[in-house]
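Intended use. Records like the one below are meant for learning the mapping from a protein sequence to its folded structure. Do not use them to infer anything beyond what is encoded.
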Amino acid sequence: MKKLLFAFIVVVLIGLGAWYFYTQQHKDSHEITLYGNIDIRDVQLSFRVSGRLTKMKVDEGDKVKKGELIATLDAEPYINHLKEAEGQVKALEAELTTAERNVINYQTLYQKNAGTKDRYDRAVDKRDLTQAQLDTAKAAVEIARINVEDTQLLAPSNGVILTRVQEPGAIVAIGQSVYDMAVEDPIWARAYVSEADLSKIYPGMKAIISTDSGQQYKGHIGFISPQAEFTPKTVETTQLRTDLVYRLRIIIDNKMPGIQQGMPVTIKLIPKI
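Structure written out for the chain above:
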């Protein structure tokens, strides 16, 4: 009885081993290995107004959070302009009150045959013109208020400062770069797949991204280019460089320190079993 039980266990173990070996071989035969590079987006940060830089609050290599104040311009000219615009609104509001009162008075006189229609019409025109001027002045106040706010440069997202382009005291124009920032999310690897393997992959397909130092990251295919192109010379592939390939973007799911722009990586695409 014991011999039969032992023999049964041996057969089961052999069967499990064979099944495991088969599934691993089957899995490996369907895996696609690609070679690519880490691609981290960067953005040029600039002011929407011109002026003199008063503060540069972060330096190269500093991490910043979305909404963090990273630089300021001299706001005094814009604050003065805002005050002038607000004063113009107050003056026009007073003028409109007088114009509306005149319309009522001339309308009453005209209805009592004590005034002319021409005087009444001119009062109405004056009121309408003042109202239009007031609307324009209020719009100018909003623009002036936005300009004051725009003297503060905020980080648009989480990221790392790559380059500090300007220094306090510099006069910068609208849109002139102040910082170059690497965007923290998303981070992806750029790779290329041959036409022969194109039918085997799909958006959302799981991937393992490995660096030369041995670090591994989980990811998935986020984009497959619909257009073929010749393999860029900077990309290592097991195919001939004259082959047409399709660009992939593999988004990294578990972001950890150590990922750098341009870092070469090996990507294994894992099919569904």
